[in-house]
Amino acid sequence: MSKDAKAVVLNYMTRENRPFGLNDIVAALQKSHGKAAVSKAVDELVLENSLVEKVNGKQRVFVVPQDKLPQPDSDELKDLDNEIINLSNDLQKLKEQVRTAESDLKVVQSSLSLEEAIERNAIVESKIEEIRKSIAAYGSGVKITPEEFTKAHEKQKAAVSEWRKRKRLAMDIVDAIAEGYPKSRKQLMEDIGIETDEDRELSLASFV
């Protein structure tokens, strides 16, 4: 019997430190030794008490006796405990990140769709255009009563507030889509036909 085959089998079983059937051991070591050599090595290692054989029905399972494995010293055990604590903390952080991501996803899913945001943005722009015409009328010599001025001013404030809210919502949706889009954010907006305030030469600041 080749001592080399026995050493290879024992090293493998010690390194893996878990039960294996004979076929599993043969499959793992087939590149270096054939089935006959591995089978004979396993039998001899069992006779030498270097491996323990467990029989479960027709299945033979082999494992290294645990009392023959090197025992970690106290420092090594302490290092392992610290590693477990660090890994547990990392796992907790990852779970928190997953919960946050799921929460963000629910917010996006419950928000307006991109098409709805575009449609509402068009409505707001229409209102803004009406206000611009009203503002232009102020300087055209048209007489406006204080009541009409107050009413127009309130409409302007409401429209600007709606404009700001819808713009932020639309951009939030665009940003959410852009995270998984293969192109740039600007290209995404061009691809789906979204026009910005700048494209229309509009500015919130000019209406505040």
UniProtKB/TrEMBL annotation:
Protein name: Homologous-pairing protein 2 homolog
Homologous-pairing protein 2 winged helix domain segment(s): 4-64
TM region(s), chain numbering: none
Coiled coil ranges: 77-134
InterPro entries according to UniProt: Hop2_WH_dom (IPR010776), LZ3wCH (IPR040661), WH-like_DNA-bd_sf (IPR036388)
Boundaries of every Leucine zipper with capping helix domain copy: 144-199
GO cellular component, one term: DNA recombinase auxiliary factor complex
Family of the protein in this entry: Belongs to the HOP2 family.
Cellular location(s): Nucleus
Keywords tagged on the record: Coiled coil, DNA recombination, Meiosis, Nucleus
Gene Ontology biological process terms, A to Z: homologous chromosome pairing at meiosis; meiotic joint molecule formation; meiotic strand invasion involved in reciprocal meiotic recombination
